[in-house]
Amino acid sequence: MSINLTSSNSLSRLENVLIIGSGGRENSLAWAIQKNELVKKVYIIPGNAGSERINKCERLKIDINNFDYLVERIDSLKIDLIVIGPEIPLANGLADFLRKKHFKVFGPGKDGAKLEYSKSWAKEFMQDANIPTANFWKVNSADEAKKIINSSSIPLVVKADGLASGKGVFIPDSKDECVRAAESIFHGKFGDSGNVVVLEEKIEGPEVSVFALCDGERYILLPTAQDHKRLNEKDKGPNTGGMGAYSPAPLLTKDYLETIVQEIIEPTIDELNKKNIDYKGVIYFGLMITKSGPKVIEYNCRFGDPECQTIMSLMDQNFVFLLEKCAMGNLIGDEKIAASENVSGCVIATSKGYPHEYKTGFPIDLGKFDTNNCQIFDSGTSFNKNGELITNGGRVLSIVCQDKNFDLAFEKIYKNLKEINFEGIYFRNDIGHQVRKNFCKEN
Ligand code: AMP
Ligand code: GLY
Predict the structure, then answer these.
(1) Whose CA is nearest to atom 15 of ligand 1?
(2) What spacing in Å lies between the alpha carbon of 159 and ligand 1's midpoint?
(3) Reported pTM
(4) What does the alpha-carbon distance between residue 318 and residue 418 come to, in Å, rounded to a whole number?
(5) Looking at the domain covering 141-195, what would its CATH class be?
(6) What are the structural domain ranges in the chain?
């Protein structure tokens, strides 16, 4: 049975919500949260120029690393719910600190964030819980890595253990390349994040992203999504933070999702409980659908970007109650979440040069953007001294549209993209190729 959420089922206030983060992900969260009429104000620290176009949204300039000052300001603003977007403040224990001060926080503590900030810990966690994942070796030196690589009969991938802004994974084509990757990590390419290296069996298959909102004990699943990590069309070129996404992912049929729930999601939540980790936030399961079934490629302790932008635009006004319930630990686990029957797509417009070096500061012309079931969530923008919207990141804009099917949704996205201009704008034309029936593969 699904229940419809019409209120937070609590006597708490939900007038002022604070979001921490500065990307398209956080803007889409703000947009979904402000839909609820109980919410009067959505503060965002630090947000970006696009946050200012979102209804009820106000940016705050506060250094989130100054925990004490942050608490003072949050107290004075009477914040009812705090949503922490990115992994770094979560890994630094911001959620723990704020919870100790009795704020309602959506976001795991440092112990739960370890699923993302230590790949070796996450692999051992999966091993303990018998969760399907690629075989792995945790190594502490370049010599140790070299021995394993040279004696391995299977291709390996090389990963820095800690956070590396999405750049810490190498998929080498030869043993030599594999050794060089491990050496570069141990020689400090990612600082302390590379004190340990994980060597992993290379596995194959399409990738999907599954998001579970957890209240510490129970969970609910958001619509699934697929991301396009590679820079270039036909899924070629270097890995990026994500060039586009779509939701839901038709690849995950109901039956398949049931297998994922039984083999991966529930064992993960049970293992967190077993380890006394009170996980109040989202678990992002990065999965690969291999010939021998679904396997976990990675866990993240946050929403994916750009998956979040596609999913948020499918949420109804009650979405904020789900976040609140997770923060309060009173999820039922059977809540109805998505109001929209539509599907959603997102294409990211990037700066020339991304994910390597790129220039910023170019004026952005948003043109005549069709806003009917379409949103622009700024990923990296700011204002220049004349108040013009300018580029301020590698990923600049997330163009998101919803419609009855993916062909219609992506048609609107690409029509809107024709309107948008800034110097060096780059985007892929084939986002969602797997689900666009009208997409010509020879494009
Ligand atoms: P991650 O940062 O862990 O998401 O890894 C980045 C990308 O590397 C993933 O999205 C996969 O495409 C690829 N990858 C990671 N681990 C493996 C693996 N064991 N086998 C094959 N590809 C992998
Ligand atoms: N879209 C991939 C990520 O957020 O890590």
Answers:
(1) 297
(2) 9
(3) 0.96
(4) 33
(5) alpha beta
(6) 13-107, 141-195
